[in-house]
From TrEMBL, chain A:
The chain crosses the membrane at residues 20-40, 47-67, 73-95, 135-159, 166-184, 214-235, 262-282, 302-324, 336-355. InterPro entries: ABC_transp_permease, ABC_transptr_urea_perm_UrtC, LivM-like. This is Urea ABC transporter permease subunit UrtC. It comes from the Bacteria. It is found in: Cell membrane. Keywords: Cell membrane, Membrane, Transmembrane, Transmembrane helix. It comes from Ancylobacter crimeensis. It is a multi-pass membrane protein.
TrEMBL record, chain B:
Belongs to the binding-protein-dependent transport system permease family. LivHM subfamily. SUPFAM superfamilies: ARM repeat. This is Urea ABC transporter permease subunit UrtB. Its main location: membrane. The keyword Cell membrane applies. InterPro entries: ABC_transp_permease, ABC_UrtB_bac, ARM-type_fold, BCAA_transport_permease. It is found in: Cell membrane. It is a multi-pass membrane protein. Keywords: Amino-acid transport, Cell membrane, Membrane, Signal, Transmembrane, Transmembrane helix, Transport. It comes from the Bacteria. Residues 1-25 form the signal peptide. The chain crosses the membrane at residues 243-270, 302-322, 334-352, 385-409, 430-449, 469-493, 500-518. It holds the Pfam family BPD_transp_2.
């Protein structure tokens, strides 16, 4: 071995690294290019990106951010949350409540304050927890606070009493299942079964308009880029090193004097907030939020996105989300629709058996073997030991 | 119905022989005479006499009168019952009447007053029906109607009754009348309150809560205290009923979770496809019933018995295949196993959806699964009872397998210390495959039971999987008793919460309770303790 | 004579242990028992470790050595008994692993446990005494002083050439040393070292003994659990033999190995 200072990796790796730079370039490039191609080219042009495609891609970006939030805790801390969809949905509901309040008198019943479903249920006044949602900054804050608070309370209990591994996975699943049941109830005040929909405008702009859609897309891309830089910064900090250490040898971390539960809790809350932001950006682009977002199956599906892309690589999680969802869109819209679940199920099995590091993880391994260099994020790719 | 009618006819025939003596003047004969006068008032009166006459022929007379089949000869003062086949029966003797001039016969007519009397009379007569079930129903009807007119009939019936259950019902009915009869002495009415309180059910409660306002204070006090005591005992019965429902739910949870518990306990594997094994078991039941319908409908009652071993073998085999092709490559990676088995569950669901369609499939219940009986105020349906029995048998069988067989010994060894077991020559691979097969097979058998109480659809398994996990986690891993206690306590807690919180909120509350419980005891109720567990 | 009423300061210690030993001792165990499912892992175990002392603990398998470490480090709670640290000022049975580690008790596991997907240097950075708060560590920068300390530890554990390799890529012996290095970085008052030379070559074993002596000479108290008698002899310290969860014999290695009961236990009866 050569002198330490000339060893690869002696220099602290850059915040982004090559992989990160490429990822950011693509995401930010898309943030500019796709809205431009949508708004500035004529409809018939070969370069024109139709609005439905902008929204579809925007949806993928939200999923990518959601996947990244899962990767932060699964890839780097070893917390397999089967309830991440709950945080996504809570963020979505916070945004949905804002959008409902913006409808005003344009609803079917024309009530200036009460959303249609409340009029329908014969409610006389707005429940207290709907107050403030007509004011965007408050709603935006709630997008972070609602999932963050749930994660804080849930994580505080779970991590403090050292619920780990599959036990943790199961109770996160129970958490989202309980929320699913709760949000299905009409008297919860969130629109029950139908959820929140028929949105009209956001900050005064029509949610259906091309321009709004383009801006929402660009915002989703920016959020993804921001999320990436944030996660990347976190996992490379001393804090992040402790997270990885917890993933690999939690007991050792405790005996070294760290409060593992606090570290997990911070990561869990950050992850929940990112998921909430993803949900909030998702809702105006798809035009609806309903309790099915809480379904345990949805949350598990997020895991496979991360697994496909590569656990513990952040960019891989985003890539996985886009690829799997593109495949889903492609197959469920064609004659192959009945076979989509076979493919999704097969994907779960195939990835765990044959590609445990995912696409990006496998690629990084291959590259580091060929370049005989250390990966630029130390400890980035976890052993396949969960 | 037809059986009852035949029985009646037979009883009638027998009794006719006994009773048909030369006509003696009695209430029955007086009653018959009243029907020949063409006066509604007389007919009414006749019905009253008939009802208390105690003559077994009376039922037929009243029935015939109601249908307009009661004929009379005004001159001869004779009465006949015209049967459905047109033949005539002499009402006085019950013997077929011969040589009757039908042209001289006229039907006994009825107006509204008479019709009311017919109703009352047939009610009173049913009190003396030879079929105890009918007598019971009649007594209960009187109890509800509290028709004072029925009192004479009631008393006649009471004096003859030998069946204790019917006798109690008759006494209650009589007490109900006495209680509401302002002419009865206070002591009798208080005694009536006691009699009614003895029945102790909802009807008695309603009756006692509605004591007439003009009743003497003593009666009212007695009624009030009886109401309190009935309410108390009914509340206890209510809890008992809910516990029964809870045990029934618990045994369903036990069936669904116990296979999961052994795969989790022995292999540390969370099998997300476990619910689909249950679902496959239910579809096996469906196919067995289809085959029976096609080839030998007479076997239908045995369909579940036949389906149980087939479901066990089919799902057990699928379990072994899954273990050999997927899970064995993932040992030591529980979270990856969780994901892979989730993938398998999606594939199995879609396979069933493709093969059988997305809609519910009809699985019938054999006759021995339907019906109910009562213990005190508990209503117990045979369906639930058999599922509890079945869950108990499966539990015992599994316990026996683990305790008494070689494979059971090996499974326990692997649960406690896999490495040590391997070094002692136990083929842990084989044990894993067998464990997974066994767990899946038990899920299949659970599916046979669930086909009786739930919709058989591709989503069947999904509705149980989360609950099953909670049972396993709550009960503690590697301990069948933990699973039993976990399933039963979750089942009972669920049903006890429901009346207060409603089904959905109760369920949510339970999820929250379990989540909090796991915080307290992260390894469940019956956790294994010691150093080996940390490894 | 009630153990329950005895406050650490106003100690009224039972039996042989005097008030002086309690207040002097860095680590003080008295009457500690632990039972797992009917198996008595520790049985009224009592002993003290003085500040600056190095102590070797031997004993056959199942003697309770690892359970003893679990009790001291807060991983296992004793059923009964007292465990005090810092001259009787701190009751360890009330604290959890993290608090105990922060107090200055470091532990090396029997199976070498390093952070395998971290570089060797990051293993030391993580262990280095200093900020442990989650939020503060998000923005933490390494200081020059910390860098110097790490360099010094690298010298001590002889892994300077491996600082940028992954922890998981080290050999077994190197991992043992790295773990000892991580203990040093924690700068504890007391090091609990569980079988540090298991799987090492003779040369490595000798080096490890030297290393531990050097650590002890620097003012750290050390408790070493080890089977390897050559190694224990190399350490040249007071030896305590555990058997069935309590102290069987105590003294120099020669005294202990001459003890008839110890011979009986090791050679079978």
């Amino acid at each position: 071995m050569s002198h330490p200072d000339t060893t690869p990796g002696a220099r602290p790796p850059a915040l982004l690294g090559t992989q990160g730079a490429i990822f950011l370039a693509i995401v930010l490039g898309a943030a500019v290019l796709i809205p431009a191609l949508n708004l500035l080219t004529p409809a018939g042009s070969a370069l024109h990106v139709p609005t439905y495609l902008v929204s579809l891609l925007g949806k993928y970006l939200c999923y990518a951010l959601l996947a990244m939030s899962v990767d932060l805790i699964w890839g780097y801390v070893g917390i397999l949350s089967l309830g991440q969809g709950a945080f996504f949905a809570l963020g979505g509901y916070a945004m949905g409540m804002y959008l409902m309040r913006q409808i005003g008198t344009r609803g079917v019943y024309g009530d200036p304050v009460l959303p249609d479903f409340m009029v329908f249920l014969n409610w006389k006044q707005l429940p207290w927890f709907w107050y403030g949602f007509d004011w965007f900054p408050f709603a935006a804050l709630m997008v972070l606070v609602a999932p963050g608070a749930l994660a804080l309370v849930f994580g505080w209990f779970a991590f403090r009493s050292r619920v780990t591994g599959v036990y943790l996975s199961i109770i996160t699943q129970a958490m989202t299942f309980a929320l699913l049941l709760a949000f299905f109830r009409n008297d919860m005040g969130f629109g029950g079964n139908n959820g929140l929909t028929d949105f009209k405008d956001i900050l005064g702009f029509n949610v259906q308009a091309d321009g709004t859609r383009a801006v929402l897309f660009a915002l989703s891309a920016l959020a993804l880029a921001f999320g990436y830089v944030l996660c990347r910064y976190l996992v490379r900090s001393h804090f992040g090193k402790v997270l990885i250490a917890i993933r690999d040898a939690e007991a050792r971390v405790r005996f070294t004097g760290y409060r593992a539960e606090n570290y997990k809790l911070v990561a869990f809350v950050v992850s929940a907030c990112l998921a909430g932001v993803a949900g909030a950006l998702y809702v105006p682009q798809v035009g609806i939020i309903n309790p099915s977002e809480f379904s345990p199956a949805n949350s598990i599906e997020i895991i496979v996105w991360v697994a496909v892309g590569g656990r513990g690589t952040l960019a891989g999680a985003a890539l996985g989300a886009v690829l799997v969802n593109y495949a889903k869109t492609y197959f469920t819209s064609g004659v192959l629709a009945p076979y989509w679940l076979f493919m999704l199920g097969g994907l779960f099995v195939a990835v765990t058996l044959f590609l445990p590091k995912g696409i990006v993880g496998t690629f990084l391994d291959w590259r580091s073997r060929h370049a005989e260099a250390e990966p630029d994020v130390p400890g980035a790719t976890p052993k396949p030991v969960a | 119905m037809r059986l009852a009618a035949a029985f009646l006819a037979f009883a009638l025939a027998v009794l006719t022989v006994v009773v048909s003596r030369p006509a003696m003047a009695g209430p029955y004969e007086d009653a018959l005479a009243k029907f020949t006068t063409e006066s509604y008032a007389d007919t009414d009166e006749g019905l009253g006499l008939l009802a208390t006459s105690g003559n077994p022929l009376a039922v037929d007379i009243v029935e015939a009168l109601a249908d307009g089949r009661l004929l009379f000869n005004a001159d001869a003062k004779t009465v006949y019952v015209k049967k459905a086949d047109g033949s005539l029966i002499d009402a006085a003797t019950g013997q077929p009447a011969t040589g009757v001039d039908e042209a001289a016969l006229k039907p006994v007519r009825a107006n509204n007053r008479v019709r009311r009397a017919i109703e009352a009379a047939s009610g009173a007569l049913s009190l003396m029906n030879p079929d105890p079930a009918k007598r019971l129903a009649a007594a209960q009807a009187v109890f509800k109607s509290r028709d004072a007119a029925a009192r004479p009939a009631l008393e006649t019936a009471l004096s003859r009754e030998s069946d204790p259950q019917v006798k109690a019902a008759l006494a209650s009915a009589r007490a109900a009348i006495v209680l509401n009869d302002s002419a009865s002495p206070e002591a009798d009415r208080i005694a009536a309150v006691d009699t009614i309180a003895g029945a102790g059910n909802q009807d008695a409660l309603a009756l006692l809560q509605n004591v007439p306002a003009d009743a003497p204070a003593g009666v009212k006090t007695a009624a009030a205290s009886a109401v309190a005591s009935i309410q108390h005992s009914l509340a206890i019965w209510d809890v008992a009923q809910n516990i029964w429902y809870g045990l029934s739910l618990g045994s369903v949870l036990l069936l669904a979770a116990i296979g999961l518990a052994i795969t989790f306990g022995v292999m540390g594997v969370i099998n997300m496809a476990h619910g689909e094994m249950v679902m496959l078991g239910a579809y096996v039941t469906f196919m067995v019933q289809e085959a029976i319908r096609t080839y030998d409908p007479g076997l239908f009652d045995a369909s579940l018995i036949i389906a149980i071993p087939i479901a066990f073998l089919v799902t057990g085999l699928i379990g072994v295949v899954i273990e050999r092709t997927v899970i064995r490559f993932l040992y030591g990676r529980p979270l990856e196993t969780l994901l892979a088995t989730w993938g398998i569950s999606l594939i199995l669901q879609q396979a069933i959806r493709t093969a059988f369609g997305p809609t519910n499939r009809e699985v019938g219940a054999p006759s021995w699964m339907s019906g109910a009986f009562e213990i005190g105020h508990l209503s117990i349906t045979y369906g639930r009872l058999w599922i509890i029995v079945f869950a108990g048998l499966v539990f015992l069988a599994l316990l026996g397998t683990l305790r008494l067989t070689r494979i059971g010994l090996e499974m326990r060894a692997v649960t406690q210390n896999r490495r040590m077991a391997a070094s002692m020559g136990i083929r842990t691979n084989w044990v894993d495959a067998m464990t997974f097969g066994l767990g899946s097979g038990i899920a299949g058998m659970a599916g046979v039971a669930l086909s009786q109480i739930d919709n058989v659809s591709p989503n069947l398994g999904q509705s149980y999987i989360i609950d099953s996990f909670l049972v396993v986690v709550f009960g503690g891993v590697g301990n069948l008793w933990g699973t039993l206690v976990g399933a039963m306590s979750l089942g009972v807690a669920n049903k006890l919460l429901e009346p207060y919180a409603g089904a959905v909120l109760g369920k949510i509350a339970l999820l929250v309770i379990v989540i909090l419980f796991i915080q307290k005891r992260p390894r469940g109720l019956f956790a294994l303790k010691g150093r080996a567990i940390e490894a | 004579m009630s153990d329950i009423l005895m406050a650490p300061e106003a100690a009224n210690p039972p039996r042989a242990i005097t008030e002086k030993t309690l207040t002097d001792a860095l680590l003080y165990l008295n009457g500690v028992s632990v039972t797992f499912d009917g198996f008595r892992a520790l049985n009224a175990l009592s002993f003290t470790v003085d500040a600056g002392e190095m102590r070797a603990i031997i004993g056959p398998n199942g003697a309770g050595k690892t359970t003893m470490m679990d009790v001291i480090t807060g991983k296992t709670r004793p059923d009964i008994g007292e465990v005090f640290f810092n001259g009787g000022t701190t009751d360890l049975t009330k604290l959890d692993e993290t608090e105990i580690a922060t107090l200055g008790i470091g532990r090396k596991f029997q199976k070498p446990t390093v952070f395998e997907s971290h570089m060797v240097i990051d293993n030391l950075r993580l262990a280095l005494k200093g900020q442990r708060g989650a939020l503060a560590n998000i923005f933490r920068r390494e200081t020059g002083e910390e860098r110097d300390k790490i360099d010094a530890i690298f010298e001590t554990i002889r892994l300077s050439d491996h600082r940028y390799r992954l922890g998981g890529a080290l050999s077994h012996g190197q991992k043992q040393w790295l773990e000892i290095g991580m203990l040093l970085a924690q700068d504890p008052k007391l090091l609990l070292v569980d079988e540090p030379v298991a799987g090492m070559t003779d040369a490595e074993t000798a080096q490890t003994a030297e290393l531990l002596r050097a650590i002890n000479a620097n003012g750290h108290s050390v408790v070493v659990v080890e089977h390897d008698m050559t190694f224990v002899r190399d350490l040249g310290v007071r030896v305590m033999c555990l058997h069935e969860g309590s102290v069987l014999a105590e003294g120099t290695l020669d005294q202990v190995s001459a003890n008839e009961r110890v011979i009986e236990v090791y050679l079978g009866r």
